[in-house]
Design a protein that fits this description.
mainly alpha; two-stranded antiparallel sheet; 7 helices; Glucan biosynthesis glucosyltransferase H; transferase
């Protein structure tokens, strides 16, 4: 299924569209398949993070850094619970209490809380 003569042309086309240095493009061009290319693109970092998994998923961070290097400077990459790389596209979730705090009706308690700097609901 993975005939080297049929996969070399798509690999060359794929590499031509990646913003790589010429020596890096030649090193990756020696790959026999797309999975090998993505494993090489991910490097040791991707192999350690996603050992035994999909090489295309392991190389996500490397491919995003090639296209937009400013994402790494802005600390836009994160790692989820399964160890996969993702982009931080929204602010972190801040949970708020669902149950309301009791309203304090005693005027002395409310005054004391105001004097000590605590909020009165």
């Amino acid at each position: 299924m993975n005939n080297p003569s049929t996969t070399k042309a798509p690999l060359a086309d794929y590499l031509a569209h990646l913003p790589l240095a010429e020596e890096e493009r030649e090193r990756l061009g020696e790959s026999a398949s797309f999975s090998e290319l993505h494993a090489r693109l991910a490097g040791a970092e991707g192999a350690a993070a996603d050992a035994g998994g999909d090489p295309a998923l392991a190389s996500v961070r490397a491919r995003l850094q090639l296209g937009t290097p400013e994402l790494d400077d802005a600390e836009m990459f994160g790692v989820d619970a399964q160890g996969r790389t993702f982009l931080k596209i929204s602010p972190p979730i801040r949970r708020t209490k669902v149950s309301p705090e009791p309203w304090r009706t005693n005027i002395l308690v409310r005054g004391w809380r105001r004097l000590t700097g605590r909020s009165n609901p």
